[in-house]
UniProtKB/TrEMBL annotation:
<dbReference type="GO" id="GO:0005886">
    <property type="term" value="C:plasma membrane"/>
</dbReference>
<feature type="transmembrane region" description="Helical">
    <location>
        <begin position="348"/>
        <end position="370"/>
    </location>
</feature>
<feature type="transmembrane region" description="Helical">
    <location>
        <begin position="160"/>
        <end position="186"/>
    </location>
</feature>
<feature type="transmembrane region" description="Helical">
    <location>
        <begin position="315"/>
        <end position="336"/>
    </location>
</feature>
<feature type="transmembrane region" description="Helical">
    <location>
        <begin position="260"/>
        <end position="279"/>
    </location>
</feature>
<feature type="transmembrane region" description="Helical">
    <location>
        <begin position="58"/>
        <end position="77"/>
    </location>
</feature>
<dbReference type="Pfam" id="PF00909">
    <property type="entry name" value="Ammonium_transp"/>
</dbReference>
<keyword id="KW-0812">Transmembrane</keyword>
<feature type="transmembrane region" description="Helical">
    <location>
        <begin position="24"/>
        <end position="46"/>
    </location>
</feature>
<keyword id="KW-1133">Transmembrane helix</keyword>
<dbReference type="InterPro" id="IPR029020">
    <property type="entry name" value="Ammonium/urea_transptr"/>
</dbReference>
<feature type="transmembrane region" description="Helical">
    <location>
        <begin position="134"/>
        <end position="153"/>
    </location>
</feature>
<keyword id="KW-0924">Ammonia transport</keyword>
<feature type="domain" description="Ammonium transporter AmtB-like">
    <location>
        <begin position="24"/>
        <end position="448"/>
    </location>
</feature>
<feature type="transmembrane region" description="Helical">
    <location>
        <begin position="291"/>
        <end position="309"/>
    </location>
</feature>
<keyword id="KW-0813">Transport</keyword>
<dbReference type="InterPro" id="IPR024041">
    <property type="entry name" value="NH4_transpt_AmtB-like_dom"/>
</dbReference>
Length: 487
């Protein structure tokens, strides 16, 4: 076997095309995104729910991370970034051989026309092996499914979740990824999704809302009172999510270049602006700054900048942050309470607002603020520009809107079909008995030993009151005073 290579001073094979700096950054960026899920969202989910659901919620995220990885290397990556099967779908297949090391990663990069009017999609060849790209794209696929899980916490049958993860990855995520990133029809049309506003956040928000409809609601007492079991630990998970976003958006130029630097800066600027805006809205309307509200604002800021991070100027990131901290706030705090459909569907962490609404908002705003020079730095959208910059820029907004309609429509239909099929195999929802008890009944484990040295709550010793429903403990008022938990 002949491989173009040189030998370094340690005796290892170094292909001529390898750029060690780009490879190191891409692996680092991928690991940062992975840390957003494990342990970031594992900690956040396990802390923000009622204590009886801490183990189940954290384990849903942990399981999804592992299941997605296996599916990704066996068939998912090629369905997202392989040869075209349909205009919106790639051909599946494994990426498991030594070619992961020896083959340079190849991705679609530019769109232009032949003289006869037919489309040609150019190729981008990052300066690192295919193994690096497979890993980097895996962590995006994993966090999408984990974000969707936020809509289903506190009642979904874990066996149904075990089936749902590979099916939704296969029939939903890969379609969005190929259509927008892998050379599919939305990519060729020039729809901009820098790092997943549509592929990840709009799809997880819509998919989660639809799944919540089919799975059904939590117990009434859980919907009415669902206090976080550990607010400080929740902030630790949120912090991992925020800082991990440097890899989320900074890795998508596929190189350690100047566009990556701008993407990281814009990401943090927008997140900070949105957090402050959400907090201001809480103070103005409710009279108190909410810690949970601040986390919500942080997340919506990160989501809104995601489809635009490397193609907008820093002033636009601030404007987008103001929108991120106010528009999803309005849909969550005002529209949600007045729209019967939103009231009827039990979206546990409000993923519809923080990801679907915010992802759609970010996708539309990039259609206004995408700066022409910056678009040329990001090879996947060379030649595009937002409506704010005049010329043909107004067309971009229409493209962004059409792309959103496709992602929304596909997820509504496919998520529904998947869950209808699963319910013929296993129930989608836990039994009433499991819902009353929570983790101990579902997994035989509890998150906290609350009574002495590992002792569990025993009604024969401590009384028959449900601690979750008590209003005081040892004379201290423990009733939740904050807003309903939504992330």
């Amino acid at each position: 076997m002949s491989v173009p290579s040189a030998y370094n001073n340690t005796g290892g094979v170094t292909p001529d095309w390898l750029n060690k700096g780009d490879n190191a950054w891409q692996l680092t960026a991928g690991t940062l995104v992975g840390l957003q899920s494990v342990p970031g969202l594992v900690i956040l989910y396990g802390s923000i729910v009622k204590k009886k659901w801490a183990v189940n919620s954290a384990f849903m995220a942990f399981y999804a991370f592992a299941a997605v990885l296996l599916c990704w290397v066996v068939w998912g990556y090629k369905m997202s970034f392989g040869d075209k099967l349909l205009p919106f779908w790639g051909k599946g297949g494994p990426v498991l051989s030594h070619t992961l090391l020896l083959n340079q990663a190849i991705l679609p990069a530019t769109v232009h026309y032949h003289s006869d009017g037919t489309l040609e999609t150019g190729a981008l060849a990052p300066l690192y092996p295919l193994a690096t790209m497979v890993y980097f794209q895996f962590v995006f696929a994993a966090i999408t499914v984990i974000l969707l899980a936020g809509s289903l916490l506190g009642r979904m049958n874990f066996r149904a979740w075990m089936l749902f993860v590979p099916l939704w990855l296969t029939f939903s995520y890969t379609v969005g990824a190929f259509s927008l990133w892998g050379g599919g029809f939305l990519f060729q049309w020039g729809v901009i999704d820098y790092s997943g506003g549509y592929v990840i956040h709009l799809s997880s928000g819509v998919g989660g809302f639809v799944a919540a409809f089919w799975v059904g609601p939590r117990l009434n007492r859980d919907r009415e009172r669902f206090p976080p079991n550990n607010v400080l630990l929740m902030l630790a998970g949120a912090g991992l999510l925020w800082l991990g976003w440097a890899g989320f958006n900074g890795g998508d130029p596929y190189s350690a270049n100047i566009d990556a630097a701008l993407a990281v800066l814009n990401t943090n600027v927008c997140a900070a602006t949105s957090l402050l805006m959400w907090t201001i809205m809480d103070v103005m309307v409710f009279g108190k700054p909410s810690v949970i509200g601040a986390v919500q604002g942080m997340i919506t800021g990160l989501v809104v900048i995601t489809p635009a991070a490397g193609v907008v100027e820093c002033w636009a990131a601030i404007v987008m942050g103001v929108c991120a901290g106010s528009i999803p706030w309005f849909t969550m705090m005002v529209v949600h309470k007045r729209w019967s459909l939103l009231q009827r569907v039990d979206d546990t962490l409000g993923v519809f607002h923080t990801h679907a609404v915010a992802g759609l908002l970010g996708g539309l705003l990039v259609g206004l603020f995408a700066e022409p020079t910056l678009c040329n730095y990001f090879l996947s959208v060379t030649g595009e520009q937002g409506g704010f910059y005049g010329g043909v820029g107004g067309i971009q907004f229409g493209k962004q809107l059409a792309g959103a309609f496709f992602i929304i429509g596909w997820n509504v239909v496919v998520t529904s079909i998947i869950l209808i099929v699963i319910q013929f195999v296993v129930p989608l929802r836990m039994t009433q008995e499991l819902l009353v008890v929570g983790d101990d009944a579902a997994h035989g484990e509890e998150a906290y030993a609350l009574w002495g040295d590992g002792e569990k709550y025993d009604m024969t010793k401590h009384g028959n009151a449900d601690f979750d429903d008590m209003t005081s403990f040892h004379g201290v008022d423990i009733r939740s005073r904050g807003p309903t938990v939504s992330l």
